[in-house]
Every structure is written in C-alpha cells, then in structure tokens.
C-alpha cells in the first residue's frame, strides 16, 4: 500500500498537468468531456462523457457505501443501535440491501435538486474535520507500530503493488477540480503546478501515514481462503471467509467496514474510534454531493450539445437546477450503493477515470500540433514527455484492475455506442448545424458554467 499510493499519486500528477492546460484554454463546464469535444471531436467526446459516468456516479455510490459502514458502526458502538445485517449490507456480504447508503444518496440528491451547494466556508470546515480526524489517527497509531506487521512487506509481490495502485487510484478522484480553476488563477504557469503537485503530495503523505499506522499498529495482511487461495475484494467468498475468521478471532482489517475506527478501538482508543466514525458521517456526504454534482454538470452539457435528450437539461422553474437529471443520477447512485460493495464500485469507477485521463493526455498533445498559436494561460511543462507518461501510467493501471472491472468498461462503452448511434449521432447540434447554442443566463443551472466567448467550437465529429 505504501508504494502503491506513490505510484497512483505520480500518475495523477502527470495527468493533472495535462488537465490544467486544457482547463485554462477552455474554462467551461464539462471537464474532460468538453476538452475532448474541442480537440478530438464529437465521437471521442461522447465516449469520454459516457465513461465519466463510471467516474462520478459510481464513485458517489462507493462513498455512500463507505459512509454507511462508518455510520452503522458508530450507531452500534456509541448508542447501542444495531441496524440488522440484512439491511446494512448488499447481497455480496450476505445481506439484502444497504438501506443507510440509499438514505444518504437520496438525501444528497434532494439537496442538489433544491439548489443547496457547499459554500467555501462549509467546505473548509469539512476539510478541517477530515484533516483533524486523520491527524489524530496518525498521532495515536504511529507510536505503537509493530515492525512484525510489515512482514512480509509485499505479500503479493510487484504485481500486487501495481494492482493495489490501480484500486487506490480511486482515492485521488476529484483532483481535476483543481485544474478547472487554471483560467482564474493568478500567474497560472507558476501557481497551478504548485497547487496540483502540492495538494497531491500532501494527500499522498496523509495516505501513506494513515496506511502505515493502520498496518503497523494493527496489521493488515491479506485474508486468504481455507486453502491459501487469493480472495477477490468485494466477493462473496471474501465476505464468507471474513465471517468465519471474525467468529473465532479479532476481525481482520480487510474485513472491517469502518477500518480506521476499527483500528482505534482495537488499540484501546474507543472514544477516538467513535469520533472518527462521527467525522466520516459528517464529512463524507460532502464528497457524495460533489460527485453527483459533477455528474449532473457533465450530463447537462451533453444534453445541451444534443447528445442526450433535451429533457435532461431542463431547469426547475423555482430552484433553477437541472432537477430531472439530478434525480435520475441520484436514483442510479442509490441503486448501485444498495447492492454492490465499495471495492467493486471503486474499481469500476477507476476504469472510467483512467480512460478519461488518457484521452485528456492525448488531446493536449494533439492541440499543441493542430493549434499551436492558441492562447494558453498554463502550458504543460515538457508536454511530449509528461503526456506520454500519463498515457502509459493509465494503461498500466487499467491492465492491473480486477478482471470484472476491465470487462465492465468495454461493455459499458458498447452500450454507450448503441445510444450514440441511435440518438446522439442524429440529434447532436453539430449534426443539425447548430455549432453554438445561445443560452439565457437565467436558464443556466448553478451547476453549469456558461461558455466563454473565446471557448473553442466543438468542431467536426473527428
């Protein structure tokens, strides 16, 4: 895990530098979808936008499942309220449906529909809560590290380290939000790399310290099957094995749904463990909110471009938000969170994210060749080194994802292609000759940024 966090952070860093150049050139809504549209054409943009569903919506589901685990544990250990196993776990863990995950998904969706967004102050408070919780965990766990818990250091060898980096990549999802502020940044050529690399370095350091504290103080070696076989994360076999082991000994870390709180309780800090659960309960909904927010923003832009039905860009007359697509997205997030484990959801999300990052890296190199004179408030340093490294990193991590996640992506893309040729190909504004679509500012939702006057035109289909 310690090395895996560094690998994932490096891949994110080089991808972030590519993101920043395009974000500064086209400071409009839509993230990688918009960048791809401007540089590679409509077809590739559709594939990217469709893949981003796996990044944002599926990631929101994964965080909802994680929130459920911490809140269920908090209620049990602090208030003695026990939510039945069948109603707090999906079928993979021997349950029926994850009710708490559904509740938080719909609650966040409701907030987005009525237009409640995070202010900078609220966000700063939530970040402070997260940092304080993680700092407390590190301070209490690092001093009681037992060296024996690190042996063997890499029980699954180099392939295991890279595979862990592929799964851990999920922890960095959302960093591209930093890059989208490149146009509004003072001295972006200097400050954007500092902001991106600095934030990634701080996050990576926190991840490594937390992982070291959890592994060293409690132990986190893999849980194997009865005959020593490897058990896939999120599988029914692992859940069954965890139940067997937990019945006769202390629950292994890999089997806990509230890992950090579990470690604190096991090393004689039960109050801190409960506070960690409370911090997760307070802070994680903001992550779910921003992920659903990002998904609806991309859908809104795709609908505005004609690639999705116009009903998805319809604005609520009172709340001035894209309420229909927000409710559709929220329902999909709740459904996935209800029945799937966090590990599988994270890996599926990674497959879409890696594809989007790869396309952005290709796009930034192509625009350097096809439009070299365009104003670039931020220029990716050594772009023909950085971008290929990002591409190679994304491909490598994708190849080390679990087989199920790798299979989901092409199947998902195939479904997207069917929808594109059945609807978007004929209905898109490019196909109908509507390159630019005038919009009244009153019609634009607060989750969408109207196009700037000098934003690149979508161009040909590519």
UniProtKB/TrEMBL annotation:
Keyword hit for GTP-binding: no
Parts of the chain that traverse the membrane: 70-87, 93-114, 121-145, 157-175, 196-218, 271-294, 324-342, 348-368, 380-401, 407-425
Region (Disordered): 443-462
Chain intervals with Pro residues compositional bias: 447-456
Subcellular location: Membrane
Keyword vocabulary terms for this entry: Membrane, Transmembrane, Transmembrane helix, Transport
InterPro entries: AA/rel_permease1
Topological type in the membrane: Multi-pass membrane protein
Annotated PANTHER family: CATIONIC AMINO ACID TRANSPORTER 4, INNER MEMBRANE TRANSPORTER YGJI-RELATED
Protein name: APA family basic amino acid/polyamine antiporter
Organism: Phenylobacterium koreense
Phylogenetic classification of the source organism: Bacteria, Pseudomonadati, Pseudomonadota, Alphaproteobacteria, Caulobacterales
């Amino acid at each position: 895990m310690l090395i895996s966090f560094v690998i994932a952070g490096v891949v994110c860093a080089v991808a972030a530098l590519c993101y920043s150049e395009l974000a500064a050139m086209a400071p409009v809504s839509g993230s990688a979808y918009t960048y791809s549209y401007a540089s590679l054409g409509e077809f590739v943009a559709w594939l990217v936008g469709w893949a981003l569903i796996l990044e944002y919506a599926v990631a929101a589901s994964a965080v909802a499942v994680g929130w459920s685990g911490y809140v269920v544990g908090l209620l049990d250990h602090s208030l003695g309220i026990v939510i039945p196993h069948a109603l707090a776990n999906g079928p993979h863990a021997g349950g029926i449906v994850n009710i708490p995950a559904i509740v938080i998904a719909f609650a966040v969706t409701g907030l987005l529909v009525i237009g409640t967004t995070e202010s900078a102050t609220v966000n700063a408070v939530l970040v402070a809560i997260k940092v304080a919780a993680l700092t407390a965990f590190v301070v209490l766990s690092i001093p009681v590290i037992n060296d024996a818990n690190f042996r063997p250091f890499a029980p699954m060898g180099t392939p295991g380290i890279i595979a862990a980096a592929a799964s851990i990549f999920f922890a960095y999802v959302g960093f591209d939000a930093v890059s989208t502020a490149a146009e509004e940044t003072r001295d972006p050529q200097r400050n954007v790399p500092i902001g991106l690399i600095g934030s990634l370095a701080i996050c990576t350091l926190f991840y490594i310290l937390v992982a070291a504290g959890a592994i060293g103080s409690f132990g986190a070696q893999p849980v194997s099957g009865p005959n020593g076989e490897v058990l896939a994360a999120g599988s029914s076999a692992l859940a069954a094995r965890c139940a067997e082991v937990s019945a006769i000994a202390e629950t292994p870390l890999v089997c806990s749904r509230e890992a950090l709180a579990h470690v604190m309780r096991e090393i004689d800090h039960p109050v801190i463990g409960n506070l960690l659960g409370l911090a997760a309960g307070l802070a994680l909904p903001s992550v779910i909110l921003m992920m659903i927010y990002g998904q609806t923003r991309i859908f809104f832009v795709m609908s505005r471009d004609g690639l999705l039905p116009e009903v998805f860009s319809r604005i609520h007359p009172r709340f001035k938000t894209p309420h229909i697509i927000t409710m559709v997205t929220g329902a999909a997030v709740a459904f996935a969170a209800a029945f799937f484990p966090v590990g599988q959801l994270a890996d599926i999300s990674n497959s879409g994210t890696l594809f989007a990052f790869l396309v952005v890296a290709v796009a930034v190199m192509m625009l350097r060749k096809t439009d070299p004179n365009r104003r670039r408030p931020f220029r990716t340093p050594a772009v023909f080194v950085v971008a290929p490294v990002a591409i190679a990193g994304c491909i490598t991590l994708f190849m080390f994802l679990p087989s199920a996640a790798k299979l989901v992506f092409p199947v998902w893309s195939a479904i997207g292609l069917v929808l594109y040729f059945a609807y978007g190909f004929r209905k898109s504004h490019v196909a109908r000759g509507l390159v630019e679509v005038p919009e009244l500012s009153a019609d634009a939702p607060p989750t969408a940024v109207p196009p700037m006057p000098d934003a690149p035109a979508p161009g040909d289909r590519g």
